[in-house]
Amino acid sequence: MSEQLKTVSAMNKLYIGNLPTEADEEAVRQLFAEHNLTVAEISVKRGGYAFVDFPDQSAADRAIDKLHGYSYCGLPLVVEPSVANKKIVNVPNLQSASAIQLKDTSNDSSNAGGGGWR
């Protein structure tokens, strides 16, 4: 179990938004190098944003401190933890459970005549 927790805490991915549309991986890597920030992996997406993986949490925190709001090519950068960083919890399909509950209660004889909430 502790190994699984290590894996989750080792994910240090940041969302970098408001990049110029012409920005590529090399340009983003150069931006981080200019601020003495070490990155593990960069994935630039169309539409002016990127995801950047850092070797540890302290490096990711430094990137947020240094670059959030920083003017890059005339645009203020948005640098924040990626939503992919959050642990996904397996939640049972509630819609299916509700449909089964409704089916079960519709056959319940104690509900005959009331039709209201129990």
From TrEMBL:
Keyword field contains RNA-binding: yes
Keywords: mRNA processing, Nucleus, Repeat, RNA-binding
Localization of this protein: Nucleus
GO molecular function: mRNA binding
UniProt xrefs under Pfam families: RRM_1
Highest rank taxon of the organism: Eukaryota
CDD domains reported in the protein's UniProt record: RRM1_VICKZ
Domain RRM intervals: 12-84
Cellular component terms (Gene Ontology): cytoplasm; nucleus
GO BP annotations, alphabetical order: mRNA processing
This protein's name: Insulin-like growth factor 2 mRNA-binding protein 2
Organism annotation: Vanessa tameamea (Kamehameha butterfly)
Gene coding for it: LOC113396035
